[in-house]
């Protein structure tokens, strides 16, 4: 997706699903820029009914400015899964049973933007945007959206006679299969650099209830 002309681009690229208003729902993929030669941070967040503070950040196993990659969000009433090139990197489960509102009552639109966040995003705000390198560009290709209709806990996709019982289509119906769980753990072990679920300094009153769900 991001295809920048300048590897030293210092800014933030943002792709999100979002509803409107102060109690909005939102699912974010953000790319935090860096000095040339240093890794970008892939920043993710989930807001439900206006409450966010659910950041998880990753380094990527490739340079996201060098080529197009596929960034996907699977969203159904049970879970939200973030994928990079079809590898799951994050799962946010429905934790309504623990009193956490889930993103399921508000429609969301997809937005994408490129903006300056050098007061916090780039090495914590230490690195500033070099405007002499502007204009900055981001390009997208091959956008696609698929939807299943859910009613009484069942998805229209489960009745489809689609040949694939694996892959993304199957995830519409259920969760990740065992192989994908292994991949998710691999990414989280090797590439995750920040997880709100383990930040007890930031949340001394206790870690979010959805964090303990497994
Ligand atoms: C930029 O690179 C530095 C050095 O490797 C790293 O600590 C930092 O997390 C990277 N990303 C951002 C957004 O600052
Ligand atoms: C475009 O997306 C489809 C699936 O949505 C995929 O099968 C195809 O390989 C993609 N093409 C490119 C050029 O990325």
TrEMBL record:
**Chief subcellular location:** secreted
The UniProt entry, under SUPFAM superfamilies, shows: Concanavalin A-like lectins/glucanases (SSF49899)
Q: Which PROSITE patterns match?
A: GH16_1, GH16_2
The chain positions of domain GH16 read 1-140
Main role? Catalyzes xyloglucan endohydrolysis (XEH) and/or endotransglycosylation (XET). Cleaves and religates xyloglucan polymers, an essential constituent of the primary cell wall, and thereby participates in cell wall construction of growing tissues.
InterPro entries (alphabetical): Beta-glucanase-like (IPR000757), Beta-glucanase/XTH (IPR044791), ConA-like_dom_sf (IPR013320), GH16_AS (IPR008263), XET_C (IPR010713)
- Source taxonomy: Eukaryota, Viridiplantae, Streptophyta, Embryophyta, Tracheophyta
Family listed: Belongs to the glycosyl hydrolase 16 family.
Q: What Pfam family is a match for this entry?
A: Glyco_hydro_16
- Compartments where found: Secreted, Cell wall; Secreted, Extracellular space, Apoplast
Please cite one Gene Ontology biological process associated with this protein: cell wall organization
GO CC terms? apoplast
Catalytic activity, EC = 2.4.1.207
One molecular function GO term is:
xyloglucan:xyloglucosyl transferase activity
Which UniProt key words apply to this protein?
Apoplast, Cell wall, Cell wall biogenesis/degradation, Glycoprotein, Glycosidase, Hydrolase, Secreted, Transferase
Protein name per the record: Xyloglucan endotransglucosylase/hydrolase
| PTM section of the record | Contains at least one intrachain disulfide bond essential for its enzymatic activity.
Tell me which species this is from: Ilex paraguariensis
């Amino acid at each position: 997706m991001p295809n920048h002309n300048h590897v030293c681009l210092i800014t933030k690229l943002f792709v999100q699903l979002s509803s409107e208003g102060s109690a909005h729902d939102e699912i974010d993929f953000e790319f935090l820029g860096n000095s040339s030669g240093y890794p970008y941070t892939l920043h993710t967040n989930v807001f439900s009914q206006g409450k966010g503070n659910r950041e998880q950040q990753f380094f990527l196993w490739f340079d996201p400015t060098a080529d197009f990659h596929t960034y996907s969000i699977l969203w159904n009433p049970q879970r939200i899964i973030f994928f990079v090139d079809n590898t799951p990197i994050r799962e946010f489960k429905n934790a309504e049973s623990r009193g956490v509102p889930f993103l399921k009552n508000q429609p969301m639109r997809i937005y994408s933007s490129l903006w300056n966040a050098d007061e916090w995003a780039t090495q914590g705000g230490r690195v500033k945007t070099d405007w002499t390198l502007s204009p900055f560009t981001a390009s997208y290709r091959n956008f696609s959206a698929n939807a299943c209709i859910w009613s009484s806990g069942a998805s229209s996709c489960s009745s489809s006679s689609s040949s694939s019982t694996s892959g993304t289509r199957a995830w519409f119906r259920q969760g990740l299969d065992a192989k994908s769980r292994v991949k998710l753990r691999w990414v989280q072990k090797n590439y995750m650099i920040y997880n709100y679920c383990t930040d007890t300094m930031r949340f001394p009153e206790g870690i979010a209830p959805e964090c303990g769900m497994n």
